[in-house]
Design brief:
Alpha-lytic protease prodomain-like, 2 domains, 310 residues, Alpha-Beta Plaits, elongated
Amino acid sequence: MSQQTDTRLNLSAGLLSVTVALVLVAVKLWALAATGALSIAATLADSALDLMMSLGGLAAIAYAARPADEDHAFGHSSAEDLAALAQALFIMVSAGVIAVAAVLRLLAPTAPAIAAEGLGMAVVVFSIVLTVALVLWQRHVAGRTGSKVVAADSLHYLGDLIPNLGALIALWASAQFGLTRIDAVVALFAAGLMAVGALRIGRQAWDALMDRRADPAVIEGVAAIARGFPGVHGFHDLKTRVAGSRIFVNLHIELDGGQTLDEAHAIGAALRRAIIAAYPRADVLIHKDPVGVQPHPEDHRHRRNHSPRS
């Protein structure tokens, strides 16, 4: 898949996310005014944050798609991680506000009044249907492009389904049995789920910004390709890092020192193509060493991860 196709798919997911968030904020504001339900307020706050994060994610997708330039030789893909970290911080703040409001309502001497439960339930069902459609498209796009922003947004909207289901139960319990305090319990539970999701998204973004290595399965996959590649007698110093949806791979390979430079280059170039064919979003840099070469005494960076050809 071409970079342009990836960008178009990611932008389509970002634009759809913004549109859905705008619609949900509007209908939930109307429902909150009609019902006064804290569970509706919880889902409204979540949708409002969704809107801000979707706007930020859309901007990050557009910025990350920019090609490498003189000031950013490795591209702009880290913008996806910055956007995901901002998403996590916004979610944590929202969860805290909702949790405090829910506790205060639970501790209130009188149970709050909830009105127009039927209207509220209709709005929540509408929100669930719209959210499911968005999540399905986002998961499709993230699976094809590997975009971290789209994947994080998809996880967050998927998490929104539980608070919405909780709000539906709370409104039904209020309408059928007058159990209005269930509304606050559901909101408190929703806040907890939001906090857990924020921590997960924030950790992934933080790891990427701190140049954490790629997934061990990816590292082993690259090693397996190099280990069995024709003309490669061994490799060492296999290093990886992740930025946004891209994986950066540095690798030293050991070649026959008696062959020509053209032959050595051809082996390295073919290995690079093989790695990229297996991991299309990888950026691969290969250094070539003669077999058995010893590190220079002044070279303080010792070899790691040495692997002879099997």
